[in-house]
Each structure stands twice: as C-alpha cells, then as structure tokens.
Structure prediction request, 1451 residues.
Amino acid sequence: MAPQHRQFLAAAFVLAAALMPARAYAQQNGTVTGTVTDQERQAPIPEAQVVVVGTTLGGRTNAQGVYTIAGVPAGTTQVRVLRIGFQSLTRPVTVVAGQSTRVDFAVAPSAVVLDQVITTATGEQQRQREKGVTVGRIDLDSLNKAQVTNLSDVLSSRTAGVTVQTAGGTTGSASRIRIRGSNSISLSNDPILIVDGIRVDNNSQSSRIGVGGQNPSRFNDINPDDIQNIEIVKGPAAAALYGTAAANGVIQVTTKRGQSGKTQWTGFAEGGTVNEVTDYPANYEQLGDYGGGQIFPCPLPEQAAGNCAPTGALSIYNPLEQSTPFRMGNRQKYGLSAGGGADRATYYVSGDVEREQGVYAPNLLERYNLRANITGQLLDNFKVTVTSGYLRSSLGRPQNDNNSEGVVSGGLLGTAFYDSTTHGYFGVTPEDLFTLQTQQNINRFTNGFNATWQVLPWLSANGTAGLDWTRREDVFNVAPGVFPASFDPDAAVGQRQLDPFDFFNYTGNGNVTATYLPMSDVTTSTSLGVQWNRDYTHGIEAFGQNITPGIGSLKGANALFSIDEASQTNVTLGGYVSEQVAWRDRVFATAALRTDKNSAFGSDFGWVYYPAASLSWVIGEEGFFPQQRFVSSLRLRAAFGESGQRPSFRDASTFFGATTATLKGDVPALVLSGTGNSLLKPEKSAEFETGFDATLFGDAARLEFTYYKKNTTNALVARRLAASLGATNSRFDNIGKVENNGIEMLLDAKIYQSDPIALDFTLTGSTNKNRVVSLGEKITPIVFGLGGNTQRHQNGYPLGGYWQQPILGYADTNNDGLLSPDEVQIGDTGVFLGTPSPRREFSVRPRLTLIKNIELSALFDYRSGFKLYNATEDFRCSVFINCRAVNDPTTPLKEQARAVADYAYGTVAGYIEDASFTKLREVALVFRAPNAWANRFRVNGLSLTLAGRNLATWTDYTGLDPEVTFAGATNFTQAEFLSQPAVRYYTARVNVNF
Amino acid sequence: MTNRNNRQLARGVMLATRGALAVGVFAAASACSTDKILKVEDVDVATPASLSTPTALPILLGGAVAQFHSAYIGTGNNNESSGQIGYSGLLADEFRSSDTFPTRNQVDQRAIQLDNTSNESQFIILSQARAAAQIASTRYKEFGPSQPGLALAYALDGYSTILFGEDYCSGVPFSTLTDAGATIYGQPLATAQIFQRAVAKFDSALAAPGVTAEYRNLALVGKARAQLDLGLFADAGATAKQVTPGFQFIVESSLTTSGQYNGVYTFNVNVKRLTLVDREGVNGLDYLTAGDPRISFTDRRATGFDKSTNLIVSNKYSSRSSPAVLASYTEAQLIVAESELAANNYAGAGGTLEILNRLRAAATFTPAAVLAPLPAAVGKPAQVDQLFRERAFWLYLTAHRLGDMRRLIRQYARTVDTVFPTGPFFKGNTYGADVNFPVPEVEKNNPNFKGCIDRSA
Prediction:
C-alpha cells in the first residue's frame, strides 16, 4: 500500500473513531411533529422549514403543512418555523425519549425577510439574519414566466448589483452578466453557476464557430420552468467559502422538489411572436465630377475640399427596410410537470418543449428539457436527493455583426440603390447569406447526488457529488453551388466544418457541521469541509471543402482538409473551516477560512488562503430599540471576505505547439505557442460590505441598503512582451490591481392595499465605480477594442474605457453648409471619453392587483453613466461612405463633424456616444381564474398571462440600440457594430394546476 | 444519572468529537497526495525541456521554416497574414488596398499610426520567425553542429534580419527569451547595424560544418543583399559572384494546413483585400501597362473586398500552394550588375547592361514571350532607373521593392517625392510621409526601446 493511502486510511479511522461514542448517545431521542398554517387564511403552509434550535435537526412541511423531526434529544428545547413571506415563530417543547411530541404553528404573513432561508457554501441552510452579507434571491414561483425567454431574462433587472446586458437580438445568443462590476483584467468576469450544489458549465461564449460576434451561452441551457429559486452571492465577502472561482460572484440555482402528498400536476402552454422593430438608417450616395468627366462618389468632405462637384440627385435606398430580410418570428413552449410523494420519498418530474423562430429564417431554436428530482428519507437521520436534468437543443445561428457575410451588415453596408443582383445588399442577398448554415446541437446531462446524515442531534454530515456533461456539436455547412462564387469562391464550392466537443464538470463536496450551546443564549456552529472540482474538455475540429453534391457530411469533402484535437483539464482542491457564534438569536458573528490549490497555478506556487468574517445584528429586536411603526425591524450587517479566480489552462506553462512546415514537402514542426509564468497564482479579490435591512411602516415597506468596496490584487495582466522577443504576444503576471465600489438598494413597498385593489412596487438600484488602480510596474496601457485602439485598460481609469483623440470644435467658417477637414479641430492625443459599463442602474417593478384575480406588472430599467461606440455609423461614414452625414448636405454640422473627424483624422471620438437609456423591458397581465371557474374545468388553478418584452426604449444614443454589442458576452470589447438589436416579444401563456 | 450529569456528558462528548473531527479532517487532507489529485495531462503540446534532444532538431528547424513562411509570404490563418511580401508591397508601389480595414489602408496611404495593430502583428510575426530560427540554431549547435539544418537556421535568421532592415525604421531591437523564461532585451539597432547583424548570420551559415551547396547559395545571396543594403557594392558583387548559376531557393506553400497557405494569394485572390496597382501615386512603376511578361496578372473586372476598388490579381501566386522565391541566381546577378554600376562599369564587358541583357535573354515564359534587349541608358540617373526597374520587375512581389525604394533615397540621393507614391490617395485625403514601418508601440515593454531612431529612408 502506498504511504499516502495508509495515511488516508489512518485519518479516516480517526474520523470514524471520533463518531463512535456518539452512536451510544443517540439512543435517548424523541420525535417532534405538527402542522404549520397561515394564521390569516387558516390554510396549511407547504415547504416551511422547521428546525430544532441549537442543533442541525430539521424538516420541511408537506403539502398539508405537516412536518416531522425525528431524533430530537429528550428534554426541553425550542422549535422554530421559517417560511418566506411569513414571520418566523419559535416555540418551546419538551421532548420525551421514544415518544412523539406535537407542536403546531400558526404564522402570520410578513414582508420581513430576515428569516428567509438561504443556502450557504457548505450546503447548509441559514436564515438571512445569520449572514452578515446580502444575498439576492429570485423566487421563480412569483415570476410570470411568459415575459422571460431564458435564464438571463430572469436575472435581468431583478437584483441590485447584477447587470445583465442584452448583447444582441438574435435568438439563442448570450447576455453579458456582471455582479458588482468587473474584477479581472484578463480572466472571465462571469459569475460561476451552481445548480443543486453542482458546479456547471456557464460558458458565455460557447462555440468554436464564429458568426460575427454573438455566441450561445450555456447559462441559458437552464430551464426557468424547472427552477424553484435563485440565490445570488454577490462578491467575495459572501463567497469566500466558494474558493478559487467565486470572485465574480455565485449564482445558485435550486430546482424544484416534490412535496409529500397527492401528486400535483402543472402544465403550461405558451405562444407568441418575435418582432423586429428597429428603424434602420438608409444608405446614401452622391456622385460627383472629379474633373475631366470622371464621375465617382463625391462625399461631403471632398466637396468641401473642392475636389469634386456633385452631379445628379442624392441616391437613397434602405435595403433592410425596402428589401427586408426580416420575418415575424414566433415562440412556443409547452411543459408538464408532476410532483408528489409520501413522507419518506418525494419526486418531481417535468418535461418541456420549446421552439423559437427568430426574425431571420435560419435563426431557429428548439429545446427539449427533462428533469427528475427524487428525495428519499432512507433512515430517520439519513436523506438522499438525486437531481437529474437532460437538455437537447439545436440552434440555427445567423451570420451577423462583424461579418462581411452578415445580414444586418449586408444591408447597412450596401448600396444606395436597388440592384437586381444584390437587392442593395453588400455583395449578395440575405437569401444567399441564409445558405451559410451554422448550427449548434447540445446534449446535456446534469446529475447530482446529495446525502445528508444527521449523525447526532448536534452533528450533521453532508456530501454532494455530481457531473455536468455537455456534448456540444458546432456545425458550419454550405452546400456546393448555392453561394455566389463572385463573393466567396470557397463557400461556392461547398464547405463543412464539424466541431464536436465534450465538457465534463465534476463536483465533489463533503462537510460536517456541529452545533453547540455553551450557554443558554449562545449557539455555536462549526463546519469543516473539502471540495473538489475537475473540468475536462475534449474535442475535435474538422473541416473540408469542395463538397460532393448530395453529400451532407465531411465524407463529401474533397479539398482543404483540416483536423485538430484539443483537450484541457483544470482541477481545484480546497478545504474550509467556518465558525459561527449566535447570541440571543440577534447577534451573529462568523469567521471562516478557505484554502485551495489548483492545477493551473504555477508550479512554484502552493496553497492560497481566503479568510472571511461577518457580523449581523438584529438591532430591531433589542429591548432598547424603540418600538414604533416607522422602523418596525432593523438589522445591521458588515462582512469582509476574500475569494479568487484561477488562471486559465496553460497560462503558467511555456510550451511549443505542433504545426506543419513545408521543406521539400510537408514536415512536422513545433513553434513556441505559449510563454508561461511558473510563479502564477490566483487573482485575489477582497471585499468589504456593510449595510442594513429595515422594515418600514409596519410591513408596508422593506428597505435594504448595502455599500461595498472590492479590491482585486494579483490580477492577471497579460504583460505585453516586447515584440522583438519573438515570443507570444503576452505573458501573464499577477501584477494588476482593480477596485470596484458602489451602493445597492432595494425598496419593496405596498402603496395601496384594499380589498379590490392593491398597488405595490419594487425598486432596485445600484451604482458601480470601477477603476484600474495599477496595471503593474512598467506596463503600458493595454489598448484594444474594435478597430484595434478604441478601448484601453489604463491606470486610474475604468476597465475597458473608451479613448480617442477628441473633437475640440468645429465651425463652418465659409458658411457653405459643409465641414471640410480644416474646419474641424482635433486633439493631439487620445483622452478618456467614458466607460462602456453602466455606472448607475435602477429598475422599477410596479404591480397592480385587481380583485385578487387580475395582476398587471411592468419592469422599467434605467442605466446611465456609460458610453457606447456607435461603430455601425462610423464604419458607414468613414469606410463605406454611405451614411447620411457624408452625403447629404442638409446633415447637421454636429454629425458632419464626427464624420469628418474620422474621415480626415482617423478619430472615432464623435461616435463614442452617451448610451444612457430607459427601457420598458416587460409588461405582464395575469388573469387568475376564480376557484369556481377552475373547478368547472376540474383543475386546482388556471391562469392566463399576456406579456410583452422589449417594448420601448428612451435614449439619446443615435445608433440602433444602446445596449447591444457586436462582441457578445466577451470581457470588455464593446461596440455596436452591425448587430441585430433586441427584438420584441408578445406572448400568451396558460398555466394549469391539477 | 441526573439531567445535569447527562448534559455534562453530552457536552464532553461533543467537545471531544469536534476536536477529533478537526484533527481527522486535517490529517486526512494532509495525508492525501494533493499533487496526484491536481496533476493534469497535457498531450497537445511539448515542453521546452522535451526538445533538448538531437531528435528534436528537425522539428525545431521545421518550426523555423514555418515561422519564416508566415513572416515572408503569410498564411491562410487570419486577416493579418499577407507576410512581408504583401505588407511591404502595400507600402511600396506593388499593391493597393482593396480593404475596409483602416489599419491596412493606413499602410497603403503611407500614414501608419503608431498603434496600428496590423503593423504590430506583422512585426511580431517577423520577430517570431527570427526567434524560431535562433532557437533552432542554438539547439543545432548543441546537439547537431555538423548537420545541414544549422546553416539553414542561420540563413533564415539572416533573411528575417534583412527584412527588418529593409522594411522597418532605424532602431529595431533584437531580444531573446531564454528557455528558462528570462528576457534578454536587445538594444535598438540602427539600420546599418541591422544589416551588419544579417551579414554575421550569413557568415555563420557559410561557416557551418554541414552546409550544403543549396544553403551556401542561400547564405551567399542573403549576405550579398545585406551588403548591398549597407552600400558595400564591391563586397556585395564579390559575394554574389560566388552563387551558382541556376540556383533558386523557394519558400514552399502547401494545402495541408492553413498555416502553409500562400498568404499573398489569400489576400489578393481569396479575400480580395489587396489588388495589384499600376503607377501608384504618380511615382509607382507601370507594372500592369508595361506589357512585360515578368508581370502576369488578371483583371477580374470586379471589385475587391471594399466593393469599390477594381480587383487585379497576380498570376504569380495563383493558388494557395504557390511558392515564393526567396533568393536566386537572378538576384545574385542583379547585385553583381549593381556593383558594376557602382564601379562605373555600366556598358563595358561584364558590366551592368550586359548582365541585365543576359538575364533577359535567358528568361523563358509561359506562354512564350521574349524580353527584348535593353537599350543603353544615358547618364547615371537613367542607368540607376534602368537597373532598379529591372530589379522591380525581376523581383516583383518578393519583398524587395520597399528596400530598393529606400535605397534609391539613401544611396542614390533621390527624394521621397520622386520615389514613393504621392499626391491624392484614392480612398480620400493624400499620401502621407512614411517610407518604412515603425517599430510598434508594444516594443516599449523593452526598457531599452524608446521609439524609432530614425523614420527616414
């Protein structure tokens, strides 16, 4: 036996021996059982959590409101019931060994969320009051799903500090998700996603085949209709125990579970339309005489300079409007689920079918979801839960954005007149472009197994194991003879690319939690745990050209064969310890430490440590706190924590990659492909947050306020290597520092409550100030962005800020109505023009309820304090010379100035515009059938929802949409560049419960 | 036992168990071999350590050849890979931009901004070619000093260096990344120093024990070219005279991988971002209207990528697998001809005119064509014009023209306005003042580099 195995067994023996005495102690127990009911409606409350105070013992109520807790130590103790939307209630009970003791609860509705239960990193459940941080929570039951099309929509504008940017309007494309700003200069700023305790793939750029910018996101594979709730752990202060991955926050999804009792069926049918509603600009062209009868396009700057004189009329044509490629899309979704079970076993099974046809013919998404979640109480003190989800989807992806073969680009870069061959598009018609078929097929299994063992009344153990496996197949196919050879001779002879990839995400967690009451009003809780994650990716890329007609696979390829294979692995091993002390159930102090090691760390780096501490004080329950109506409850909280982010695969390695050279024929070759850093360590983000939660005017309003300050150190900076080294472009160093700070608030208020009418609203707001503190010594600003130099990471400024030579002024000095280059003044050097990320975001969700059966709600979203590069118009004006500003002499001078600035001086400053906007994102009208109506159909519940999404935008931004970006969900690159703006949805949905 | 005793017992058990748990968990954690758990395999790449063997030599030489191919004639890999042939031809008078990328339009316009990303990419690719050749030569010296690959590695290093000298400003540094990952930053070299470095590399190639006749000729042409760039006409002529008749070294392309594609074909024919041009900006040569069989082209009667510039494609690179000549006996003879001109032997026996006409007489073409003998030019300026025109047509699209145009200014006292394209630029505005490429801003991460020493020719 290897020494390390012997050591492991020895350690396991110590652990087992430690538990042995506890078995004897476990004999003197009883059972507590009872019901939980709504005090107002006298109705049972299902899914309420009932816990024995000072222990890890607990249970949940079934559909009839009944709970049972076995193994409760004999003697006097306290039992507490917790349920969101209701007051917490604690009652004493005397448990007799070997007997069942009954304790019933009648709890009152409440807006106070201090006793709302949230899931911690250890898998344990805690009340909100026990945590010194704020955790966002979205309960999907309360969301009208007709107004959301995917999980990104669910997150959008519902939680303070969470920014979801709709990158484009193509069905199936990703959104950019940021929580409390961006921490990392070089690594992903996406939060991690955990589903039922299992780390899962949420790659927001999940494709190997580009279509111009937008990519699918694995985040949106998660079916909103299967979700019970979402918890958003916003930053390192709360995420320290999640370790080297969680610096950008954690999104925890809990899928639905069955409740014991009669099987509850839920079905829904949804249908609607997908509508293109953007007003696209026309193409312009003015011909002119350059002398000697030479007639060429004669743009305004050339006219102003006297180089040409316009001849004939100004040509205007709008291909996207007059030869439109768009169609009205449609959306359907159908689902059926069943949940139920007995006291010792519950189940939830569901199946969904979704089909969304986007506004382009090839943009079709089809998805099939299956889910089965089973929970079994195998012993009184041993419970297992198996969660299993399956997804199959196919997505047709249209060419767009930064793509000469894109549809929107084809129209906006096309001609100013109708042409029978191209219909005014850039080279080929949309119908031709639709023959370029890009498809993504997904098969995905997400399976988890969780076991909870109540070893002793004060000691519980929890283990989770899971695998998220995604089989992704990207396909590009163009049949021979269908695409015009004049535009792309390679596509004309037929091409096919096939990239099958497998992604495996393994999770293994184990922890033990012990509680202890050293004094009557003090409770302590200690958790120890280990965590292991392994991500493995393997795939093949294959390409061939000159496809044999009639053959639809690579077998038909006859030229330019290409094949490649790629694999990568990343493993994280971590351990943690957490200690919480609660005093009088009002003051909670927690200290924790996590340590990690990761396979991507440099070979010369060891373990990393992340400490955390928090304090929560429910001051409103103190005797000295004045009992009055204005502030009816108050909690103060503060927390500090650190978390990290690992480098990517091979970032720490210097390596040579294989290629082929030609030297008297093909020969194998190796070239330097990676310049690594053996000292590489994780980025570390430390966060301090503080704030309060208050209930105002009785239960009429709830206010949460949080201030946070987050510093990322050891940020990976791709230190640009001197070009003359002849190495790779850059090498990572842990030298950067980034700072984020801001405030968050949530106000949930009931404006008017009476029997027939109720009006309430929820306001969430946040600010974020992001700044590069330092890129590191001797690091010049990192310049990037569309065009190569429009954005920068520069010390003292926000990440990815826009920089250009500014337009200092302009004046039509000769009063000819045109601006010539010498009438526009440009600054000598690039200056900071603004940040691409919103600094302020507020959303308002008003809700009007009429006669309890009709509910009208809306979601307004306001974002400001940011800029967007309107590269669409810039490119049209400076390169294709087909925009109004360089052709139409009636164009306002301001627009002419920015066009001349780029045309003559190469600065795009005039196109970097304020992109502040207000959007009416959602409106929903819900009609819930009265019970009598439902009974007539022999169902328990029946509702109809009419909803709209992306209904209006108010902005001064002059481009197509102030929110879209051609680069999809990439880290920082941001510009509106020939992108499909957000589309409008109108949907109707019927929900039935029976 | 009383309740009090029970509670005390329970408390004791709890405390003991918690302590044991803590000890146990940490003992288990420390007992496990974390290195084994965290070990990951990476089968797709090779580590530097694995290449310190004799068997790795041909693979590393292959790497040097592959990198030089990218730098010289480009690849089919991405949009930045027309190589120095396409890139220098765009700044000179061989190519015109039919592109929409501002970064390449700036090159054609001779108005290259310092943060031009295309310029940065080309510089890095050429540096990678030089570095790969250096890695190969270093390993050959250690593990196979008598193998012919050593001479080729040195020669490729020399040609990369020549391209830096001919195409870039004065002040190019040559830095080294060691196997251990340490950086040795080079000092900026003036243009003359760059060519001296090239000469030294070719001398090393010639001195390599296993040098073959082919690699010797390759090194001789390269050395003569560098000497010509230095204005050492007599030395250049003497070196070039040693080149064997009929010699030609080609940089091969292949359809096997996109990295082996001919990038000039890709840019000119396939993606249509470059087009041939005639008499560009007043001073450009009449490549397309001269009726010279050395310039074979096809007017596609279509527009390039920008949908506005007429597309004319070169038949010299007519497919993805078309090779490009790097060095030849013809070039050696042109160097000899120039050395004779410098020695004032234009029309005498073995003089410039005789050499040029001998090359013309020996030329064969498909379809058949004849190059008529050149008439004697009168006066030195006309003789220089004639020689450089012959060089431009013989060495068309082989990354020589930009260096020659700069030499006309540097060595023959021509002014920029009489050599480079000038006047209105066909995409708007006017031509700028650039006669070479700047070293990109990213080089400022080299603490020795502050900027080009001199942007003049």
Summary: The longest helix of chain B spans residues 3-31.
